[in-house]
Design brief:
single chain, about 210 residues, alpha+beta, Protein Transport Mog1p, Chain A, 2 domains, 8-stranded antiparallel beta sheet, about 30% strand, globular
């Protein structure tokens, strides 16, 4: 009987100590989690869509492709190091390029330049004036270009729109390698339509905030 009472007393003491630790001892990591949760809730209550990416610096918001990594330090230099086109890139995830001839530096981006001469040739090396395409109720000019060398192909395309005092482009860049350079059956040809759909989804969701 005394043994049973002793065991019960030990259990009660352990429970009391545990509760004291949980209630009165600070746990900073838990506070961080609560702060993050509170911030997310506040953003939703404030009208922000948690599935959208927003950039005050570049004046836009958009729904990035699922799984793509955001690169805010992105600058396009298609015309050489002296011509810088700022923006934000969404880098393809491993699940998209793994086992294919698509390289991991492929991406979709949102870029802009000052002025109202909104033609594809301001963003890519092309003489094509662009084909009109409507995405999300907004008219874009679409054009493509491609360069190749040393077994690599860079397929560049832009969707360009007038945003008042700035020209905005949604770019898709597919860096592809030659399937013939690999052992037969080791990789498959990347389905280009996947990146095209990702870029068009960004263009459809794009909201300009200049």
């Amino acid at each position: 009987m005394e043994t049973r009472y002793f065991v019960t007393a030990v259990v009660v003491v352990l429970v009391a100590v545990t509760l004291t630790w949980l209630i009165f001892i600070p746990h900073p990591e838990k506070y961080d989690e609560l702060d993050n949760l509170a911030g997310a809730i506040a953003g939703i209550e404030g009208g922000e869509d948690p599935l959208r990416y927003s950039s005050r610096e570049h004046g836009f918001s958009a729904a990035p492709p699922v799984g793509f990594r955001v690169e805010e330090s992105y600058v396009n230099q298609s015309f050489g190091p002296d011509v810088r086109i700022p923006g934000v890139a969404f880098i393809v995830p491993r699940t998209l390029y793994s086992g294919t001839n698509l390289s991991p530096d492929s991406f979709v981006s949102v870029e802009s330049l000052p002025g109202n001469d909104c033609t594809p040739s301001r963003f890519i090396l092309t003489d094509d004036p662009g084909r009109r395409i409507v995405l999300g109720g907004v008219a874009y000019l679409y054009a493509e270009s491609a360069t190749a060398g040393a077994g690599n192909v860079y397929e560049d395309a832009v969707y360009v729109r007038d945003a008042g005092e700035r020209c905005v482009a949604v770019r898709k860049l597919a860096h592809l390698t030659n399937v013939a350079n690999y052992p037969k059956g080791s990789i498959r040809e990347f389905d280009r339509s996947i990146l095209s759909r990702a870029a068009e989804d960004v263009a459809r969701s794009l909201v300009i905030r200049y």
